[in-house]
Design a protein that fits this description.
The protein has 410 residues and is of the alpha/beta class. The protein has 14 helices and 17 strands.
Length: 410
C-alpha cells in the first residue's frame, strides 16, 4: 500500500493549507498496513483502550493543556469558557475532546496521523492517542470507508476523513448501500455511529474535480443525516454532536472557511444537528443559505440594510432533514423566500428545499420561491470564470430588489 505525504509545507501554516489547497512536492512511502494490530474489531478495541490509558497518563503530566497550541495558532481567551480560534482549530479541538471523553472514538483517512490531515484538523493528535486511533490509510476511499462502517457496527465511533469530498464518490457504494441502510436491513440489530467529514465546495482555482458541490448527491441517500458547518462555534459544537450521534452523519466543511475566526464554546457546548440558525432577524424577506453562502448573503445584507430593506437570514445547517419549524416561523412573517446556495441548480439542495416549502407552506407566501444556485457547468480554473459560476453578493441584492420592490424609507 502507498501513502502520499507532503513534506515541504510548514506544519503550522493553516492559511497555505486552507486557502491554497494545492498539493506541492510529494514523497511516496511504502507503508505496510497488513498487521494484526491494525484490526478494527476486537483487537482494535483493546488498542483504543491502551491509547486511552496513555492519554490519561499524558493528562496527569500536564498534557491536557497542550491541545490549544496547534502550530502556534492565533487562539485567544475571551472568557472563562469561550475562546477565539480558527475553524480548523475548532474542529480539531472538538475531535480531541471527544477522543478524550470516549475511548471508542477514532479517526481514519489519508494523512490524518503523522501529517495531521490535509487541513490540519487532526494535527499532532497521534502523539496523544497513538497511531491506532489516528489511523493513516492507503489512498483507497472505498476500502477505508467500508472499514470505518464495519468498525461502527462493532461498537466503535469512527470519524472518516475524506481529503476532499469529491474523492468520497469512490466510496459512494459503501456510504449508500452500507452506511445508510444497515440499521434498517439488519432489523435494528446494528447501529452505524459514523461521521464522514471533509472539505468540499468551490475553493480558489482548484479546478473542476476539486471544486465539487456534492451535498445533493448524499441528500438522496436514505438513512444518513447531512450537516454543513459555517462558523468556528457551530463547527465545534456540531462535530461533537455528530460524533455522539448513533446515526451516520455526513459533515460538510467548506474549503474556504477553515480560516474563519470566531468564538467557540467549552467542552459541554453541543449543538442540535437538525436545527437551523437564525443569523439575522428581519421582516421583509427570508434568505435561506448554508456553509459559505452564509457570508455571501450577509455581505449582500450589508448593502440591503443601507438601502432600507430588512432581510432575515437563516443558516440551514441541517441539509437533511430540513428544520421546517424555523423556516415556517420565518416565512409566515416575511412571506417571501430566497434560497442562496453553492450547490448546482439542477437537482440541488435548493431544488429540494423549494419544493418542500411550496408543498407545505404555499398559502403563507406572497411570492414564488426564488433560487440562486451555481451554474450547471464544471467549475473553471480561471478565476473570472470560476467566480461567474457561483452566486455573488450582487446577485442576492438584485434578487431582493425584484422580489420586494422599492424599499420603504424608515
Amino acid at each position: 500500500f502507498f501513502s502520499v505525504r507532503r513534506q515541504d509545507q510548514p506544519i503550522g501554516d493553516a492559511r497555505a493549507n486552507s486557502e491554497g489547497g494545492v498539493l506541492t512536492t510529494v514523497r511516496t512511502e511504502m507503508v505496510s498496513t497488513v498487521h494484526k494490530r491494525h484490526s478494527v474489531g476486537g483487537v482494535g478495541r483493546q488498542a483504543c483502550a491502551r491509547s486511552s490509558s496513555g492519554a490519561l497518563a499524558a493528562r496527569r503530566s500536564g498534557g491536557a493543556r497542550w491541545n490549544a497550541r496547534v502550530g502556534r495558532p492565533s487562539s485567544t481567551r475571551i472568557g472563562a469558557e469561550e475562546k477565539e480560534m480558527l475553524m480548523w482549530e475548532a474542529l480539531r479541538e472538538a475531535t480531541d475532546e471527544e477522543m478524550e471523553r470516549d475511548p471508542t472514538v477514532l479517526v481514519m483517512g489519508e494523512d490524518v496521523g503523522h501529517y495531521g490531515g490535509s487541513y490540519k484538523v487532526t494535527y499532532d493528535l497521534y502523539k496523544k492517542y497513538g497511531e491506532m486511533r489516528l489511523l493513516d490509510t492507503p489512498i483507497a476511499e472505498n476500502s477505508f470507508a467500508g472499514m470505518g462502517i464495519g468498525a461502527a457496527m462493532t461498537g466503535l465511533r469512527p470519524i472518516i476523513e475524506g481529503m476532499n469530498m469529491g474523492f468520497l464518490l469512490l466510496a459512494f457504494n459503501q456510504i449508500s448501500n452500507n452506511c445508510g441502510m444497515l440499521h434498517y436491513t439488519s432489523g435494528g440489530q446494528y447501529k452505524v455511529p459514523v461521521v464522514i467529514r471533509g472539505p468540499g465546495g468551490v475553493g480558489r482555482q482548484l479546478g473542476a474535480e476539486h471544486s465539487q458541490r456534492l451535498e445533493s448527491y448524499f441528500q438522496s441517500i436514505p438513512g444518513v443525516q447531512l450537516v454543513a458547518c459555517s462558523t468556528a462555534r457551530n463547527s465545534k459544537a456540531l462535530l461533537k454532536a455528530a460524533i455522539r450521534s448513533d446515526n451516520p452523519v455526513i459533515f460538510f466543511e467548506h474549503v474556504l472557511l477553515y480560516n474563519v475566526k470566531g468564538p467557540v464554546g467549552g467542552k459541554d457546548e453541543v449543538q442540535e444537528l437538525n436545527r437551523a440558525e437564525v443569523v439575522r432577524e428581519g421582516s421583509d424577506i427570508t434568505i435561506l443559505c448554508y456553509s459559505r453562502m452564509r457570508y455571501v448573503s450577509m455581505q449582500a445584507v450589508g448593502d440591503l440594510v443601507t438601502q432600507g430593506y430588512d432581510p432575515e437570514v437563516i443558516d440551514l445547517i441541517s441539509l437533511k432533514p430540513f428544520d421546517l419549524e424555523t423556516i415556517y416561523n420565518s416565512l409566515k412573517k416575511t412571506r417571501k423566500v430566497l434560497i442562496v446556495e453553492e450547490c448546482m441548480k439542477t437537482g440541488g439542495i435548493g431544488a429540494s428545499l423549494s419544493s418542500t416549502i411550496s408543498e407545505n407552506f404555499i398559502d403563507e407566501l406572497d411570492h414564488e420561491v426564488v433560487r440562486l444556485s451555481s451554474q450547471d457547468v464544471p467549475t473553471a480554473y480561471a478565476h473570472e470564470l470560476e467566480a461567474a459560476t457561483i452566486v455573488q453578493p450582487e446577485q442576492v441584492v438584485d434578487a431582493v430588489h425584484k422580489m420586494c420592490g422599492s424599499a420603504i424609507p424608515a
